[in-house]
Every structure is written in C-alpha cells, then in structure tokens.
C-alpha cells in the first residue's frame, strides 16, 4: 500500500512539474483554421437548383485574405452569383472577392444560384503577408 501511495505521489509530482514548466501560449496566436468564421446556408432548394448564401467574418486580430471555390457536379453549374465575381475552369468555379482583405471583425457576404445537386463552397482565409 505504501508503495502505491509513493508511486501515485511521484506521478502527481511529475505531472505538476510538467504543467509548471510548459510555456504559456500567447493569446495573440490564432491557429490557421481559426482566422475566419464561415457561415454557409442553403435558403432555397428545388428539384433542379438551389441558392447558397455565405458570410465570412474575420475572427482574428490580423487582416486576412479570403478565397472560395466551388466544385460543380456535371451537368450542374453556377447560374449567377452576387457579392463577388466568378471565373470558371471546367467544373471548378472560383469566387473572386470584390474586396479580398478583411480587417479584424469585418465580414463579407456572397452567394450563388446553382443548377443540379447542391454544392457548397470551400472557403479559405490566410493572414495578409
């Protein structure tokens, strides 16, 4: 019994020492996946089409650039877009921001109407270099 108590005390002491020795994380460092909050909705859908609405908000403390792509499923395609321009190469649709830089706390919205099965955009945010 005394052996278990000493072993437990040793393990607890090592854990406490490691916790005290670990460097504190800086509050200003934001993991890359957490630069933006992306909210995607499908406010309307019918047998051969849909509407997608996207809002991107910079949740970091630094300016970021954003971009988005949509991979359509043939024979589907993007009928129209708003809040951004689009460029098409095969089944890939590039959402081209009117204003690609988002300051901390700033948000931008865009959307599109599509034909065929619903496809959602892939949005990326990166710090401005």
TrEMBL record:
Stored Pfam families: CBM_2
Q: Where is the CBM2 domain?
A: 29-128
- Keywords in UniProt for this one? Signal
Q: Where is the signal peptide?
A: 1-21
> InterPro entries from the entry?
CBD2, CBM2/CBM3_carb-bd_dom_sf, CBM2_carb-bd_dom_sf
The name under which this protein is listed is Cellulose binding domain-containing protein
What is the organism field in this record?
Phytohabitans kaempferiae
Organism taxonomic ancestry:
Bacteria, Bacillati, Actinomycetota, Actinomycetes, Micromonosporales
């Amino acid at each position: 019994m005394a052996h278990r108590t000493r072993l437990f005390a040793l393990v607890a002491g090592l854990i406490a020492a490691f916790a005290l020795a670990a460097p504190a994380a800086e509050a200003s460092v934001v993991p890359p996946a957490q630069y933006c909050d992306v909210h995607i909705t499908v406010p309307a859908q019918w047998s051969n089409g849909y509407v997608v609405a996207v809002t991107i908000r910079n949740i970091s403390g630094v300016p970021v650039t954003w971009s988005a792509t949509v991979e359509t499923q043939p024979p589907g395609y993007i009928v129209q877009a708003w809040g951004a321009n689009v460029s098409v190469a095969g089944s890939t649709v590039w959402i081209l921001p009117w204003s690609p830089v988002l300051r901390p706390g700033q948000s931008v919205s865009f959307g599109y109407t599509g034909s065929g099965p619903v496809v959602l955009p892939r949005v990326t945010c990166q710090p401005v270099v």
